[in-house]
Amino acid sequence: MSTATPDTPNTAHGADGHSAAGGHAHPSNWLYVKVAIALALLTAFEVFTYFETVHGWGDNAIIVMLVAMMVLKFFLVVAFFMHLKFDAPIFWRLFVFGLILAMAVYMVMLTAFRYW
After folding, report:
1. pLDDT (tens digit, 9 = 90+) per residue, 98-112?
2. Domain total for the chain?
3. What is the CA angle 20-87-74, rounded to 5?
4. 71 within 8 A of 102, measured Cβ to Cβ
5. Residue 57: helix, strand or coil by DSSP?
6. Is 1 domain-assigned?
7. Is the pLDDT higher at 116 or at 88?
8. What is the arithmetic mean of pLDDT over 38-50?
9. pLDDT at residue number 42
10. Tens digits of residue pLDDT in 6-37
């Protein structure tokens, strides 16, 4: 049974972007398609970057570029496909902490194998 009166329309989402059930309004399907296209393009550029190591780019530049693209892809996937952009901020902070911790461990191992 609808609780809408003639002067208040019965909409699924209010002006603040929250639904009547207390959730958040999620983006349209087209936004998900655009994010998927961006992820595909980033992946293609990562593969191109990896294969260019054979043709003389510096190793340090390659590592920095690949890590930057990896972090960007991580944020896109977590924000949109895991819906953390629309959840409580504590979940976002936990994922960012996990990324920072993983990157620190990766950099320690990379320098250990590269320089020691």
Report:
1. 889 988 998 898 888
2. 1
3. 145
4. no
5. coil
6. no
7. 88
8. 90
9. 94
10. 444 444 444 444 444 555 566 788 988 999 99
Cα separation, 60 vs 72, in Å, equals 18
- Angle 91-95-97 (CA atoms, 0-180°, nearest 5)? 115
- Domain that includes residue 41, residue range: 30-115
Between the CA of residue 2 and those of 13, 21, 40, 86, what are the distances in Å? 14, 14, 43, 26
pLDDT higher than threshold 90 for residue 89: no
Q: Does some domain include residue 17? A: no
Could you tell me if 37 and 76 are in contact, meaning their C-beta atoms sit under 8 angstroms apart?
A: no
Hey, which residues does 5 pair with through a beta bridge?
8
Positive or negative torsion for Cα 51, 54, 58, 63: positive
11 in a domain, yes or no? no
Length of the chain in terms of residues written: 116
Closest CA to 32 of 74, 73, 65, 76: 76
